[in-house]
Every structure is written in structure tokens, then in C-alpha cells.
Amino acid sequence: MDGAATMSEIRHTYRTPVHILLPKLLQSRDDWKAKSHQRRAKLKAAHIKIRDLAASRARWRQRAEQLAEESRRLQERAAQADSERERMRAALAQLEEAKKN
Questions:
Q1: Exposure pattern of 60-97 as b/e (b: 16+ CB <10 Å)?
Q2: Domain spans of the chain?
Q3: What DSSP assignment string belongs to 19-78?
Q4: Distance from CA of residue 22 to its chain's centroid?
Q5: Cα distances (angstroms) measured from residue 74 to each of 12, 17, 70
Q6: For the whole model, what pTM was predicted?
Q7: DSSP label at 6?
């Protein structure tokens, strides 16, 4: 039934009386619409959740990259400080050796 059938065609096509058939068809249509509406709402909620999670993930990725960069810089500074400390120890050892002589 595509909606263009006349009442006489419906009466000849179906054996069930129209007064019984019509409420069942209307109920079926209403159930289909409710199911469709529910699915649309669920899909919209999923799209919103995906959008929010993608934004959150991007923020966390950016934060992790910043922290990794900061960690790299601090490690470089620590390595420089270690080399400076070793250089100073060597200079101090030379001074102490010179004092002894």
C-alpha cells in the first residue's frame, strides 16, 4: 500500500474489515515513528558525545605534547647542569692540587 489506494481497493485487497485494520495500521505507523524518533535522538546524543570526546582528546594530546616538550627542556638543563658540575669539580680538584703543591 503506497497511500494512493482507494477504499474499494483496500476492501478487495484485505479480508480484514477496515474498522479493525485501520487502528492496527495507525498503531504500526505510530510505533515506527516513535522508534525512528528514539533512534534519531540516540544518534544525535552519540554525535555530541563523539564531538566532545574528540575535543577532550585533542586537549589532552596538546597538554601531553607540552609536558613532553617541557620534560625534554628540563632534561637538557639537567644534563647541562651535570656537565657544569663535573667541570667545576675538575677545576676545584685542580685548585686543591695546586694548593698542595
A1: eeeeeeeeeeeeeeeeeeeeeeeeeeeeeeeeeeeeee
A2: 7-100
A3: HHHHHHHHHHHHHHHHHHHHHHHHHHHHHHHHHHHHHHHHHHHHHHHHHHHHHHHHHHHH
A4: 46
A5: 87, 84, 6
A6: 0.56
A7: -
3-24: per-residue pLDDT in tens? 677 777 777 777 778 788 889 9
Dig out the grid coordinates for 58 from the structure: 585533542
Centroid of chain to Cα 95:
62
Of 43, 65, 62, the C-alpha closest to 54 is 62
Q: CA-based angle 92:94:96, to the nearest 5? A: 70
